[in-house]
Specification:
alpha+beta, elongated, two-stranded antiparallel ribbon
């Protein structure tokens, strides 16, 4: 499998052929040196999964996680903290209950 990194309107995406089907995956970052590095890592992950037989044809494994309109990698502790803040602010749950 040969994956290409492409600039599409200033944003990066990956392109490749999978069983005669053209696949594209938006990386969710601008075309900058840091963005290129992230795209290269995602490319390597997909190629590695292909070689070891764990390629996800749905591409869900490779899509960037998002909150709102911006791509982000968020870990469980951070997500739980944000959930707690939301519950306290909008649902009236007390901080002691959340603790």
């Amino acid at each position: 499998m040969k994956i290409q990194i492409e600039n599409h309107n200033g944003r990066l995406r990956l392109l490749w052929d999978d069983s005669d089907k053209r696949q594209t995956l938006a990386i969710g970052v601008n075309d900058t040196p840091v963005g290129r590095s992230l795209a290269q890592k995602k490319k390597a992950e997909i190629e590695h999964d292909w070689v070891i037989g764990q390629y996800d044809r749905t591409l869900l494994k490779y899509r960037p996680r998002t909150i709102g309109k911006t791509a982000t990698e968020i870990l469980s502790p951070e997500l739980f903290r944000l959930f707690g803040e939301h519950q306290a602010k909008y649902k009236g749950v007390s901080r002691s209950s959340l603790a």
